[in-house]
Amino acid sequence: MSIFDWYLDYLEVCVEKADFPDDPCLQMFDLFDRSGETEDVEQALAYLTQAKAIADGAGEEEFSLWCDVFIAQKLANLLRYDEALRLLSESVVRSRQKRFNRTPQQIMVNVGYLGKMTDIDPAGYMSQIEESAKYLREIAKSEPMHLYVMDVNLIWALNECGRRDEADSYLSSVASHAHAIGEDYYHHSHAVLLAKTAYRAGDYDLTLEILDHSDDLETNSLYNIASQIMKRACCYARAGELDSARRQYNKSWKTLNCPADLDFCRFACEFQRLIGQEREALKLWETFYHDSLDTGVHWSIACAAEQLVLGYQTLGETAEAALWERKLRDAAGNLRAPDRFFEREPLIV
Amino acid sequence: MSDQENTAKFELHLPGLLKVLAEHLYSDPRVGFRELLQNSHDSCSRRAIESDDATYQPEIRVRADADGRTLLIEDNGSGLTESEIVSYLSTIGRGYTRELRSATQFDDDGAGNQLIGQFGLGFLSAFLVASEVEVHTLSFQDGARPMIWRSEGDESYKLVPGDRTTVGTTIRLRCKPQMRFLLCPEKMQELIARFCDFLPYPIYVQDDAYPSNRQVAPWDQADADAALRDYLKSKHQRQDILWSMPLQDATYRLGSETITVPLSGVLYIPWQSVASICEFGELSVYIRGMFITDNNRTVLPEWAKFVSGMVSTPFLQPTASREDLHADESLEIVQEVVEQQLMDGLTRLSQTDPSTWEDVIESHHDLILGWASRSEAFFDCIADRIKLDSSRGMVTMQEYLRGTGNDRVYFFTKKNATLCEQVLLEGRDMPVIDGTWFGVTQFLERYSNKVRPLELIPVDSDTSSLVRSINQTPFESLIEQFRRVGVDARVVEYAPRELPAFVYYSPNAEFLRESEKALGAGELMPGIADMIGQYADSLRGQGTDEDNTLLINASSPLIRQLQQQSDRGKCDTTTLRLIAHFARVFTGRVLDVETCVTEFAGITEALLDGLSGEAAAERQGDQV
Question: Of chain A residues 69-88, which have a CB less than 8 A from chain B?
Fold first, then answer.
């Protein structure tokens, strides 16, 4: 059974058995629905937290676990990774009970947890990520939604670790999962992934083509929309259409409804570099570094610090570069496999 | 394909288009009935505007024909001439009403505002209701002759001379089987009351002497408040109203221009929220008196979920089916105007009628608290009036802060926390606010940012900040006695002194215990288990050595006495075990069933030991 089938079936059951309009079960469904209707991440988080509190109070453990995954996602959107990780760790442990074995809830919280660990330290946890992905693939094989989320995370992790070919080898399976899910959202999410892959491969025409085909804004999340617009800005900048590029860049920031994450920041900085604003790019990285500093997303922090080292080196500002080198070392020290950041010779002023 | 550029016209497949428009434009087939009544209404308005007859009395009548299959809608409006039938009735998307409204929009009497039709589509709804439609009409214009228009909803219609002798129009609708419910007089009355209640012209059913619509909206009546109450009662809506306010025309600055937004209606606050968070702040919307929807959630501001009402304005643009509103600039302007009037009304209420204002806040406490932070102005209205649930009952922030005498505010956000934190805080004369409702923490943060800077302290699981360390040396013998019964203890000081001990668990204690169990039993997925193990280790690294430590209270008379006993080497171990068990139960957040049973078994055993020891001593005494 898919998690959404469970949701709809259970909603029907609750509606049938509810005696009063303020029945807790109806309230938790109502709040959950509202969380999906708002684009305000803080507000959605408030709805979800309350839905979970009601579910916990009513002994609705399945619903509570279901909420956990969405709450964790909103927390991550707000860069509150520590809280997201803590919540999902508890959910994973909670979902180990026999009655949850192989249920959509159990799979969902494990896939969610895997996603957060992938964000935090993809290289450090790569062997565990691959091991758990293999196991999850087996028990979730009839569930394209879970497989989709898992494979997207896996592709991200492999790319981060420089294993591009392996990452690309998952693209077709992700496409087939997206197709099997059939929901517009997943097609858009898939388009985000494809556009990024095409851009990275240097095929900017293809990138624009993909972006043009994923413009149905109604069914897309604001983050996806913003991130697509930012890629468009980069493509225009590469084509020398600077006015259009700037318009898209500004529009992208306006559309983004949560703090920029690593991927978004990479494209924003790429744009600034393309239009020759290296220093603006460094400013963006610095902001991102500071925003991420207390979030526990060590990988993002290290990546930002690394970009700052390289950026200041390029500008010939060795003192600044050395300062960021130290910060990079601190950040990478929190990673399980920091080698990727120390392949270069350390800077000596 | 030719290389030359070709320009071609679109071709229309009329039957298909008619079918789509008639059957799919409206989501509710009953709306078709409303559209036809609206046409009759506009026809009456047209005659009132265009004819010179000062004695004209508009009237619409709906009846079922004797054949039991035909619905008749009759009006004594303007009727149609032969050319008007061709130009307007038989041309989709063109309506005379729109043209007349535009021609009369600058007239002083605002007569055009009574006209409802806009799209020239309404008549199509006849085919939603009927398979055959006949229109018998005679125009009020000089020299007009009666005509009959007939169509079966295909691409052709017939137009023949009629025999009607009175000015007006009768639409004969041969109802589709599924629409024959419309032939029931009670159903007609119900739908007229729903859709056309506030239209100014009387609409009668069958031969009724009294119209089925009230024709005047409650807010336009002399005693608007009483009329509103009667109206809501008749609609089986709210039982009672706590407060209401009329909506009025408003001026609005649009760039350099000032425009007038015509607005009428009423906003009201019921006595109770029906279902707390399930409230939406819904309005019934009317455009030129015609009902559009009764569950609009967009006109009222987001924070006003405890408010209901009815709004009527020609300023809003309906969708083509007139079942909803366009999300356009007009809607945004109406939203702003309504929000401003509501805010002014509530501010006035709070200043002039504090008792009703208190009732409003009390009746809709959760909703107001939950949404107050969405509006600065509304937050200012309620910041020091809304009451928060605390360990000392319901208190306002001012009362809370006055009671504590400092800027610290303690709150908990999880229902499953034990009373331990609350008892410890009460011991320090600090009440704790229940922050489990989603709006509370947002409210506290906003209060701290806007009204007065506060130190907001969540006390969900961390009790370590509520105790004071003291010198352990005087208590070494007692600590040793506890160690002998298997309990790690540390002496600290806290209030209340009546509480002899509690067990300190770090915020991570539960998770660590559960994850340890899960990992030990191999219950987690491969790969994930490894990551959870690592994560648990990192948490363990952050923890203190005090996890699971019994914190005994140096201020407690019981502990003082035990200290003296242990100094003399005579400490009662049963009491020590009892204290330790009690402390665990008191801090019972991490107790599962198995642990509870074990702990109580220990207590029972200790008590039984003690009792049997006493009995033996008594027996010995007796023997002596």
Answer: 85-86
